[in-house]
């Protein structure tokens, strides 16, 4: 299926989003086949055992992403399927899945879909950091380096998400300093929390660096100070925890 060749072209706007001519008879005819196509792709990504076939399914489905956002429910299911592939399997599958996820996030038509993509990606990353071992560090680094790319796409949405998650880290640190119990210390001094600090450092370094090169003030720059303060606070916890 290729909707563009069947008479429903799309235009790419200046902000990277796709505008599909949905108020036409041809799109009315194609809407159901396009929906069925993505539902089939989702099923294939969930069940295919062969890595080569998964790789082909990902690359081919990327060509149809401009038509995906007309059905929000299917779009969210597609993102979930992409994240499952991004968080497991060999590197080429991870990168192909992220490429689809990047285009899907960049072309999202509304803020709710953008927020869903950013939140889901972050939560998937943090779930995978719970299993931090020497042999998983390379995969976790790949996930962090690719995930931070999503936060360069939509400045306002990225700021809101980053602000909320960094605030959560600060609250956990504050509770730890206030209560000073072993349980609270273990909440902060664990791999997921430390990976969160590292991830947001990568995001801020990338977004602020890009904006500085362009000579435009960064939306993310105000988050540097609170993140640094949280990081320093976590560093001070180590001798306190050892004394318990």
Give an overview of the whole structure.
The chain has about 240 residues and is an all-alpha fold. The protein is about 70% helix and about 0% strand. It has ten helices and two strands; from the N terminus they run ββαααααααααα. The longest helix is centred in the last third of the chain and has 25 residues, at about 155-180. It starts with 9 loop residues before the first strand and ends with a helix.
Shape: globular
- On the 0 to 100 scale, the average pLDDT is 88
Helix content: over 70%
The proportion of strand residues reads under 5%
Total count of helical runs of at least 4 residues? 10
Low-pLDDT segments, ≥5 res: none
- End-to-end C-alpha gap: 63 Å
Structural class: mainly alpha
* Strand order within the widest beta sheet: 1-2
- Cα-atom radius of gyration: 20 Å
Largest sheet: 2 strands, antiparallel
Strand/helix succession:
EEHHHHHHHHHH
Q: How many beta strands in the DSSP annotation?
A: 2
Write a concise keyword list for the protein shown above.
two-stranded antiparallel sheet; globular; 244 residues; mainly alpha
Short recap of the structure:
The protein has 244 residues and is mostly helical. It has helices spanning 25-47, 51-62, 72-86, 91-106, 111-129, 137-150, 155-179, 182-188, 191-214, 224-242, and strands at 10-12, 18-20.
